[in-house]
Amino acid sequence: MEIYDTTIIGFGPAGFTAALYAGRFEMKTMVIGLEFGGYTAKAGIIHNYPGVKKADGYELAKTMKEQAEEAGAKFYDGEVVEIEKKDNNFILKTKDSKTFYSKTVILATGSERRKMGLPREKELENKGIHYCVTCDGPVYVGKDIAVVGGGNAGVSAVLLASEYARKIYLLAAGEALTAEPLNVDRVKGMKEKVEILYKTQVKEFLGKERLTGLLLSREFNGSDELKIDGLFVEIGSLPANKLAKDLGIELNDRGYVKSDTSMKTNISGAFVAGDLCDVFGSFKQNITAAASGALAANSSYYYLRDLNK
Amino acid sequence: MKSVIIYSTNSCMYCRMAKDFFKDNKVEYTEKDVYMDENARNEMIKMTGQSGVPVIKIGEEIVIGFDKATIKELLGL
C-alpha cells in the first residue's frame, strides 16, 4: 500500500503552491483535482500577481503546475468523493474508484460559483445565461448583454466583455459598486458602452428557447423589461466544503474552514488552503491562495516531522 | 482517426485545455474561432442550440464543453 506524506485536493493556485512547497520539502506528494487552474485559469489577464506585469491566468496556472511537478509532486485527474481518517491515515476515494492513502491532507477545494436561484436558470444555461465571461463572452461580439454583480467578479466581467459586447448593462443589487476602486473607475469611465443599474435585481428570465430579456425589480428607461442577448452571472461563490464536512472539520457561519495562519484545522493532519479557508475573510486573491498553500505545506511538513520524533 | 473540429474562443480556458489535450495526445484538429468567424459562430449555435464553448465535433458526434472522458472514449484513447 503506497502512503503519501501529503495529498492535496484541488488544482488551483493554492493546491499547486502547496504541492510546490511540499515537493521541495521532499515530501511524497499527490495532488488530486478536477477543475484545472481554478478561478486563476478563468481570470483572463491578471495584473496584480507580483513579479508578472500581465499574466495570462491559464498560462500562470500551467506554470504553477509545471513548477510543482518539477519539485516532485505527482498529479491525478479525478474527483475525490469520499474521505475519512482511519488509524492516523487519511483514505481518499475518487469517483473513478481509485483509493489514495496519506499521512496528511491539504484541502484546497476552493469555491463554487453562486447561481441566481431563479426559475428556468438551468434550462437557459448556455442559451443566453452564462457563468464564464472569458469563455463565452466573445460569442456575444456586437451584442447587448447584462452582467449581474456589483463586486469584483461582476466589474471584472464587464471589463472583459467590453472588448466584445456592443452594450453592457451592469446590474448591482446595492447603491454602489464594491469592486477594486481602480476597476470601478474604469467601468464608470465607459459611459458609451456600460450602463450601471443600481439597486436592481433580476426577477424573471424572459424568452422561450433562449434568453431574450430580463424582468427587473425596478424600471429602467420607463420599463421593467430589459432586452438583451446574453446574461453573465457574477455574484460570488460558495465554499466547496463537502469533503471538509465529511472529515468533521469545523466551519465558520459562512461555511468556510476555520483556521489560523498555520492553516491547521481541528482535525490533526488535515490542513486547508485557498478560497476554502477563512483566514483572509472575503479577500480571495491569487496571492492569498498561493500564500496559504505555502503555509499549509509548511505546517504539514513540521506536523509529520514532530510526529516522527 | 475521426475528424475533430473544435469551436472555440481564444480566451476560453476549457477550449485551451481541450487543445492542449489534443496536442498531448497527438490528435489532429481543426479550430473554428467563433469570435473572429461569424459563420462558424452561427454554425455552432445552429448545430447545438446553445452558445457555450467549446463545442467539439468528433466524427458526427458533438460534445459540448471539455468532457475529457467522453472525448477519450470517442477517440478511443
Structure, described:
The complex is a heterodimer of chains A (309) and B (77). The mean pLDDT of chain A is 96. Chain A folds into two domains: 3-113 and 237-307, FAD/NAD(P)-binding domain (3-Layer(bba) Sandwich); 129-233, FAD/NAD(P)-binding domain. Chain A is elongated, with a radius of gyration of 21 Å. The longest helix of chain A is centred in the last third of the chain and has 22 residues, at 286-307. Helices cover 26% and strands 29% of the residues of chain A. Chain A has helices spanning 13-24, 38-42, 57-70, 133-136, 152-161, 181-188, 242-246, 286-307, and strands at 3-9, 29-33, 45-46, 55-56, 74-77, 80-86, 89-94, 99-107, 111-113, 129-130, 144-148, 167-171, 194-197, 202-206, 213-220, 223-227, 230-233, 237-239, 270-272. With 309 residues, chain A is α/β, with parallel strands linked by helices. Chain B has a single domain (4-75), classed as Glutaredoxin (3-Layer(aba) Sandwich). Chain B has a four-stranded mixed beta sheet, sandwiched between helices. The longest helix of chain B is centred in the N-terminal third of the chain and has 12 residues, at 13-24.
Give a quick summary of the entry.
The complex is a heterodimer of chains A (309) and B (77). By secondary structure, chain A is an alpha/beta fold.
What is the CATH architecture annotation of the largest domain in chain A? 3-Layer(bba) Sandwich
Task: Find the count of extended strands of chain A (DSSP E, 2+ residues).
Answer: 19
**Shape by Cα distribution of chain B:** globular
CATH level 1 class label of chain B? Alpha Beta
Oligomeric state of the chains in view: heterodimer
Supply Rg of chain B: 11 Å
Order of helices and strands of chain B: EHEHEEH
Over all CA atoms, what is the radius of gyration of chain A? Answer: 21 Å
Within CATH, the superfamily of chain B carries the name: Glutaredoxin
Distance between the termini of chain A: 23 Å
Provide the low-confidence segments of chain B as ranges: none
Q: Which parts of chain A are unreliable, with pLDDT below 50 for 5 consecutive residues or more?
A: none
Strand content of chain A: 25-35%
Task: Compute the number of helices of chain B.
Answer: 3
